[in-house]
Automatic annotation (TrEMBL), chains A, B:
Cross-referenced Gene3D superfamilies: 3.10.310.30, inorganic pyrophosphatase (n-terminal core)
Organism: candidate division TA06 bacterium 34_109
Source lineage: Bacteria, Bacteria division TA06
Segments forming domain DDH: 13-159
Domain (DHHA1): residue spans on this chain: 234-314
InterPro entries on file: DDH_dom (IPR001667), DHH_sf (IPR038763), DHHA1_dom (IPR003156), Oligoribo/pAp-PDE_c-di-AMP_PDE (IPR051319)
Family annotation (Pfam families): DHH, DHHA1
Name under which the protein is recorded: Exopolyphosphatase-related protein
GO molecular function: nucleic acid binding
Amino acid sequence: MKKIVEKIKRANKILIVSHKRPDGDSIGSQLGLILALKNIKKSIYCLNEDEVPETFLFLKGCEFIKKEFPLNKKFDLIVSLDMSDLSRTGERIEKFLKELLEKKVFLINIDHHDSNTNFGNENYVDTHSSSTSEMVFKILKKMNTKFDKDIVNSLYTGMVSDTGNFLFENTDSETFKLASKMIELGAERQKISNEVFMSRPFQKVKLISRVIDRAKFIDDKVYSYIKISDFKELKAKKEYTDGIVNELLKIKGVGFAVLLIEEENVIRISFRSKIEKYNANSFAKKFKGGGHYYAAGGRSEDTINNTIKHLEKELNSL
Amino acid sequence: MKKIVEKIKRANKILIVSHKRPDGDSIGSQLGLILALKNIKKSIYCLNEDEVPETFLFLKGCEFIKKEFPLNKKFDLIVSLDMSDLSRTGERIEKFLKELLEKKVFLINIDHHDSNTNFGNENYVDTHSSSTSEMVFKILKKMNTKFDKDIVNSLYTGMVSDTGNFLFENTDSETFKLASKMIELGAERQKISNEVFMSRPFQKVKLISRVIDRAKFIDDKVYSYIKISDFKELKAKKEYTDGIVNELLKIKGVGFAVLLIEEENVIRISFRSKIEKYNANSFAKKFKGGGHYYAAGGRSEDTINNTIKHLEKELNSL
């Protein structure tokens, strides 16, 4: 970590990137780092493929996260957050990053995914960390930068997002210690809890009801689906599907849950396990995907009916 | 707290009671105290009006919580946990306790409810505590009793139950510090998270869908109801209604949520607030109830239709 701290301290123009389809941890870790580095007068440009999801717009500094390429393309450092591989930025940004790397711009890779490919010039990959936000918090402490309310709000948001508010496997005593410290440093826990976990759009809640109604059980496995027509009918945004698979996983007796989400040209599939018996990562490979042991994703270009048939067959033989 | 510690240390035959319709905190604090005091060879009898809910049966020691009166009715100490008033034990046990109190048996009242009436001979009422389980943890630390996995499992369960897994107002940096300590002392966080928050009976999930379907909004307030016929139709147990009001509160834009639950002779009503504007405790008084600022309960002996009319009127003028 010492080398990372030195590199950041010495850099002036820093590019910060994270993965497409951003989640609470990618946004939270980016904002925490942006705000802290701006405080010490670094010039920061933050580039993402997709927009900040509605849920996280309450955080300060979202306006610093851009989709457009910077006008001045000179950087002396790139920091990549919460990405297992360079390609996770999306094609457009990956190409841009590769150009910078060819020009020998130094890349620091900060991440907590098992699947990280150590693609950086310097890699800080800690698979025991709850979140990338937790890792950024540790770096900033090491750097002795000033923490303000907005910085710890971002990092706390990232941490609770990735741990499902301290419910998932990645939560341990250290996670709670850091949560406690962030609150002491001013994190507005209640506000964040309300925004992230207590502010489900009613259309999302209706979408969940629909998914529950359609749930089909195969022993201790369950699957359900969202049809493309549901979005229109319920006036639901696509990002409202985030986390819905966990509602299936939370059912008593369920060890493995699958949610199919039909979109224009693809069916996105989420796999979740809550018991050691089921490996979501290896199951996802049957559907062109992968991820973690307990959480993975995949996809299908077939029709929803055919995909369901395929899925049922695979679940039956699991 | 010193006096409480002394009293417990000196007592030999201790009666532990809590409220009817037990929740995670009443059960968790009882089990934590029972197991710790049994370890130091105290004779313990624990008496509750109702059975331990299904959700908490995974905890060690549930068999020590009895519904039947003890054969030998001699006690030198009563410890009441998580009860704002003696009547919260239920009529049958309240009568029994009053007999003991007439015989000058000492009563320690340990609770965190605003509405506590300080009915004990010694009262440890801390409205800033997340839970009664947190308070029992502090007492046991002061007593220097040994902690084992089963004790901290109970107390952690109580704490996460009453804070909605660290989502509610009563969570602060101290709560996280204690959670961290409990894990270091052996609390099986993942197992507890799975049992308490990731094991919803499917009938409960269906009940939630029904409540969502019936939700009615009045500005930023929402109410819904469960009819007596729903239980039979969905094969749902009464205890499955626990926490359902929070599903209404979690809807975006909702500041105040009310759930009516029709039973044979009474309609039980839950009130929840997530913003300072709404005081659930004072609102509950309009329905023969009370509790905390952000969470309270009440009841009605009228019909469900009349109760809804009354409620709508009160919500409109709130």
